[in-house]
Amino acid sequence: MQPSAKYLYYPGCSLKGTGIAYEESLLTTFRLLEMPVKELPDWNCCGATTYMSISEESATLLAARNLALARQTGSKDLLAPCNACYLTLRKSQEMVAHYPQIARQTEQFLEQAGLPRLDSVRVRHPLEVLYNDVGLQRLRELTVRRLQGVRMASYYGCQAVRPYGEVDDPHDPTRMDEILKAVGVEVVEYSLKTKCCGGPLTGTIHDAGVRLNYILLKEAVRRGAQAIVTICPLCQFNLDAYQAEIRKQTGEPIDMPILYLTQVVGWALGGEFRELGLHRAISGRKLVEQWFTAKKEAETYV
Amino acid sequence: MERQIRYQREADLEWAHEFTKHPNCERLLSCIQCGTCSGTCPLSIYMDLTPRQVMALVREGFREDVLRSKTIWLCASCYSCSVECPQNIRITDIMYRLKREAIQSNLYPKRFPVPVLAQEFCELVRRRGRNSEFWVVLRMALRSNPLVLLNMARTGWDLWRTGRLSLRMERIQRVNELQYLPTASKEVD
Ligand code: SF4
Ligand code: SF4
After folding, report:
1. pTM of the prediction?
2. C-beta atoms of A17 and B165 within 8 A
3. Interface pTM (ipTM) of the complex?
4. Distance between CA atoms of A147 and A298, rounded to whole angstroms?
5. Cβ(A164)–Cβ(B79) under 8 Å?
6. Nearest to residue A41, comparing CAs of A4, A9, A83?
7. Residue closest by Cα to atom 7 of ligand 2
């Protein structure tokens, strides 16, 4: 562990928009961990799951520009908190490594654009950085307060763990549970933790997307969870934003906070309500307020 | 009634053969039709062809049937099928390739929101370097089905009051660097 290691940060579009609470809590958490994070200058959109459906070439090159910009700053680690950004950047690297023709195209593009050649930038997901670079032991030590009697389900979504499996095991990931336990959170078994939330489908084929979210929420309730913890802005958005609609459609009283891992960890490390973006919850607002604005004395470890 | 039987003479084996030469599509022919992909796919109940059927139809060269299907647009790129396939076939990437070809050949379902969204999104990113969530969704809705805007109003309001809706049009500084991306006509390779 190097506490002074400089992490570059690739926000992607969501963390500046609907997922702004993820950015706020990420920056706060890493500040509390004394691991400075710097935003990648002039980053462009990663292309998400969409650009690949229009052009494989351009999708790869868009991601490559970001990697080249990262290379330019001299940093080795590029944090990509959004699952789609993470995968897109990783995938671009993989395409370049496997297909000489794509590598040539990429080189040519970077040269024309006046950018440096690709080099060994490591694309990292915050979950895996918290687990590997910080470690459970240090998280345990730095924890200053904990939630009493709140049970949470960890939810990974798809693209952090699949297909590469570098953030966690693609079939049975456990690192998020371990991190949550380390900062004093009670976790429940949750078998749907890598089931897809529908991604952008809630905006396009709405019914199909909302149904997937209903299944995820319902199962979390059935497992006794009072909140779901996510590591992807789109998962958070999908699960958070449509609960009113789900209540109306199904008549079930689901009103569950959907939190970012960095909000929960950041709070345990001493972060404050607003700087962790906790005021931006749509569902389960009362619970969020109740849990995270409790008096400090009561929360501190004895 | 829709005809169910496919005839061999309608198949284009040349196309199928070419298909497997593309990046990440090489292993298509090793499919053993076990159906694991369809079993694991969270969207298969909404699909007109299951992922397993898509693999079989591509392999046999039923080009149009596959390219016209809704299935490829329902695929959310969750990679479940890809990590579960016992033959290591990169099904998600094959779906991507089919999406590109469907747009290129103009065989995608018009006004179906997914390809419309994809086009709007890519155009915005090409021109400005960044996506602006609000504007992309708005343009997609206007082009496919403006009625959905009514349903979106509530979500929009929730996002607005929690400070999560940005109306800003994002743009990168060195947008000129993007002119070296392959041009739109070559775009769909
Ligand atoms: S899981 Fe793989 S081998 Fe099995 S049907 Fe699907 S593509 Fe074929
Ligand atoms: S990647 Fe697409 S086809 Fe495969 S399981 Fe996910 S949604 Fe289904």
Report:
1. 0.93
2. yes
3. 0.91
4. 10
5. no
6. A9
7. B75
